[in-house]
Amino acid sequence: MEFQEVVRRRRMVRKFTDEPVSDESIQRIMRNAVRGPSAGFSQGQGFLVLQGEPLRRLTEMFEWWGGEDAKTAPVVVIPFSAKDVYLDRYAQEDKGWTDRSEDHWPVPYWDIDTGMAALLILQTAVDEGLGAVFFGMDEDKWPELRAAFGVPDMYVPIGMIAIGHSADEAISEGASPRTRKRRPFDEVVHWGQWR
Q: Are 115 and 158 in contact (CB under 8 A)?
């Protein structure tokens, strides 16, 4: 699929068939995820890919912000950011900072870079002929998630991505793109001066 077609077709899919996702597709999705930008090549992300029994445990543990239909996805990827990896990397000699202070960071690049990896997952899913939806989870559930799946405390989940074969080619009823129009291009993109 051409890149422009991938971008045009990418949307949040919340209903999935029971068709499994091939191991080859999952491998391509995850290999692309780790190719995202990374400040200082810190590579402070981690990804938990759940299928089968581990995924069933996840669906029983949490309320899904993606909606009950998203629970039918055969694959869920949880992208995690690791702030300490970035703070350690930028305290190294080649970066010039002598401490691990968060004050050096105007925005949390550990979360930004992990968000970019999440977008690569969403786009690669489209390129594989699949659907996907990104959704959040309550912060108070993070300790339970870490304990259930052996995730070290330094990793923070930025959300979850359900992936599968779309059961609905149209935009779901009640979805924001049905109830809201895309903002006009010229209201969002500013050339040379914000007007």
A: yes
